[in-house]
UniProtKB/TrEMBL annotation:
It comes from Halocynthiibacter styelae. It is a single-pass type II membrane protein. The gene is ccmE. This is Cytochrome c-type biogenesis protein CcmE. Its main location: membrane. Belongs to the CcmE/CycJ family. The chain crosses the membrane at residues 12-30. It is found in: Cell membrane; Membrane. Residues 31-151 are extracellular. SUPFAM superfamilies: Heme chaperone CcmE. Keywords: Cell membrane, Cytochrome c-type biogenesis, Heme, Iron, Membrane, Metal-binding, Signal-anchor, Transmembrane, Transmembrane helix. GO terms for cellular component: plasma membrane. Heme chaperone required for the biogenesis of c-type cytochromes. Transiently binds heme delivered by CcmC and transfers the heme to apo-cytochromes in a process facilitated by CcmF and CcmH.
Amino acid sequence: MKSLEKKRRIQVILVSFLAIAGILVALAFLPKDAFQYFKSPSEVMAEPPRQGEVFRIGGLVEDGSLIRGEGLAVTFAVTDGGATVPVSFVGVLPDLFTEGQGMVGTGSWEEGVFHATEILAKHDEEYMPKEVVDALKEQGVYQHAGEDSDS
């Protein structure tokens, strides 16, 4: 009986090891841009990403920076209070996308401009993505909705 239990344990360990090895091999063959990292504007300006690297950026849409071009082309700047990054986007912006509001964009860095392929805007007065809140708090510019800026 003990011999059968020992064989079973060895089989389970061997199958577990093979499954873990298979997962690691699959991860090794994923494209390098399969994982999208969040970066604040300060992080992007301090250490610019590689050309074409796909990542997410978030912050506040800088007041006075929104420029609508021909068709669906839009340019604006996103800031976290410490740095500002120019953004270009071709597509339909979310209905709640406005200057001074929080946003998160997915895209790539090319020639000093973040070229967004997707733009998300906060959906109500209370919500802002955690990454954006953390980046704004680091820069000392985040205020919770309802807080007075004079206090």
